[in-house]
Amino acid sequence: MAVAWIGNREVPLARAAKKAAELLVSSRCPVFSLDTDVHGTRAALALAARVGASCDYVNGEAAAREAAVIAASGGMFILPGEARRRADMIVFVGEIPESHRAYVEELAISVPDLATGGKRGLFLIGADRGAPKRLGGREVTLLSCEGTDLAGTLAAVRALCAGRKVTAEVTNIDGFKGALAEAGFPVFLFGGGEADGLTLEMLQGLVSDINRRKRASTLHLPASEKAWGAALTSTWTTGFPLRTGFSRGYPEHDPWRWNAGRMLDAGEADLHLWLSATGGEAPPAAAGASLIAVAKTARPAVGADVTIAVGDPGLDHDAVSYSVRTGTLAAVAARSSSQLPAAAVLRAIIAHLPEGAEAPC
Amino acid sequence: MLTRISGGEIVDPLNGRSGTGDLWIEDETIVEPPASRRPDATFDASGCIVMAGAIDIHSHIGGGNVNTARLLLPEHYAAHASRPAVTPLSSLGWTAFETGRLYARMGFTTVVEPAMSPGSALHTHLELADIPIIDKATLAILGNDDFLLSMIRDDASSSMIEDYVAWTVASTRALGVKVINAGAATAFKENVRTFSLDDVVPSYGVSSRRIVKTLQAAVAELGIPHPLHVHCNNLGAPGAAETAAATIAAAEGVPLHLAHLQFYGYGTEGSRKFSSAGARLAELVNATPEITIDIGQVMFGQTVTISSDVMRQFSARGGADPRKSVIIDGDGNGGGIVPYRYRKDFYGSVQWAVGLELFLLIDDPWRVFFTTDHPNGAPFTAYPRLFELLMRKEARREVAEGLPKRALSLTTLPAIEREYSFEEVAIMTRAAPAKLLGLADRGHLGAGALADIAVYRKQDDVARMFEAAALVFKNGELVVRDGEIEKYRWGRALRLNPSPDKAMVRRLEAYHQERYGLSLDWFTFPDWAIARENPFGEVPCRA
Hints:
The complex is a heterodimer of chains A (361) and B (543). Chain A has 361 residues and is of the alpha/beta class. Chain A has helices spanning 13-26, 38-51, 61-73, 80-86, 101-109, 150-161, 173-182, 197-210, 225-238, 260-265, 342-351, and strands at 4-6, 9-10, 30-35, 54-57, 74-78, 89-93, 121-125, 134-135, 138-139, 141-143, 186-190, 217-220, 244-245, 252-253, 271-276, 290-295, 306-309, 319-323, 328-332.
């Protein structure tokens, strides 16, 4: 099976890796977008450090927001295992992403066995369109505020819980306040997909208010498990989550400056390394920028100067990935080792670079 | 490869060697001087002190909480990366890679991350594996986990508890066991806000003391070389010395290690009800031979506190500087990240003095360990200045002159004349840690030892001397020359490997399926996940 192409021409892997290295070395402003596992991210960061590239997540807005709220204000968080066993009140903040639906339904139908025990109330804040009335067969109480969005509803809920007045009504607020007063450990589920940065801070403010007298916390359901795994990996490797660049020879974190989409649209980047272990359609080649596609694919990516096929972590090769079920990194053994890991491909590219400083991975 | 380090002043307390001489290395090992062979390489160590590589028994260098601190404080790394060296946290060693580089240049060759949550062991080991040059090890946290607390509540047999502890140590690849404010993290989840040694965890009816005693017994019975590593209750509170004293008394002849004792060395005297109890605790340690302690010295400046004592960190978050923090309720302990600046004010000065009192008033350097509880008391890069404070009373006086006299008057520090000798430093940072951790292959310079060696150019400026070693060898390889990295290599994580009991594994599998809806595989990991060759080095349990 073909694994590497230069343009549309099939070539041996080593030749494609050499060509990719040449393109990277000659690039003045390379940008990487990453959608891979921990070891793929480590290798990508090592390569980026060597060639002065910047790194972003594929579709990185949500992950960037999730990391930014921790840097801006911190917060209170609970791990998923503890939430499952302890939360007697679950509050969904915004729409539940489809990718977490199975997990969330499981959470809805299970009951806490620690401390309070026995039952679990379900609420959903801020979605007045298309929100489920039931989840896993259990009723979900909606809190919504006419004429405003998630941020506005959450702000109103916080104000009302603090005994302040608001002009707009929030549906079911009395039931919510009553449940909050009775709950032993409410847990608010959030992700960066729908909620913007200020909404996430507002949520942390609400939880902080509750913790003055009682306990509560938030459960982070990352918009993308791979992106959050990359954020964690980048953080111990470079000191920062992604949207980090090495153009000055050391890592710099700047969520606006190193936004891959912005850089390509603005014509700042002259090379895009698209690392997508889950595949999908290649991003359109930006004007004036070379494209290196390291992706799960059976054919050369459209418009790519170099394409190298890699496997989906945990499916096509053994992997280490972030798991929303444990809230940490997990080893995932593949049923069969059928395709190359991205890490191996990136190391092959690194091997073709001129001698350089020690790589951090 | 035969190497000779010639003409250095050898300081090797374990083997009673002291004086000028040569040291010979063959490949990875220190050897007797060969009778008739010429060395392949010779390094001139004249005018230098030659010691074994240093071992840090308690430094938070990797894992979920450390990484969360990085996420919380990106501005601190920015200061580190691109600004002059005097900016806040400029020398913290904020990435895994920098951690190895900065430790190695000071002559440290083994460092223990003392707070690994068993549930995130893989994350911790991945970070440690990216720390170059040095060897690492971890202590697994127990004592707030439902499985253990339930067993204690239900009067499970000691052998069953030992099986669980053994499984935890083996599956997380740990070198020992730590308990952090035993029971408090669980109590905090039920809205308990303070917790002492004889307080009882709600829903379990188990006291903190009973948790500590249970784990202490299990660790001893399993032959885990390192005694139970205890982070006591009431850390940082005025009057915490009472808790530390009660915990020391609770050792009852069985080895127990108390972590960062400085943070408990506080009495309630004076108008501010905050004073030093350092001298009293030092006396207690002197009188209790089964106790070992490390200090957790405070040094002035910006840092970030990283602790799995979630109750304490929650209560400290009001003092966060800058004003942001992270509090995590985990499956067991969780953790809290609270940035903090130690100022030369009344409180900071008392804390600084308490640590030094403990260092200087505990007589036996085999039982007191050199730590700042990195980064809680100070970043580990403050070590050279701390060595100077221990070895030069004049250096202490100079710092004390800039501190509030009222604070120091509530301590005994101004009256202490003791200065550490090189031999005492070598015991405290080399021989004793190796003995405490059960690492017979290091901490000394005898034939057969691993060739982890630090060579320091002798000079009056002690801080400069320890800041940048003249030479450092790791496993016989020259890795540092004149404070600069000569060669990067990847060390190992040292671990115990007790055989897990099959019945316990079955029980844990059923428990995880039932309570978490997940198989035990989600909470363990195979070696391949680390993606390095031979990532672990095995240390034997005592027979």
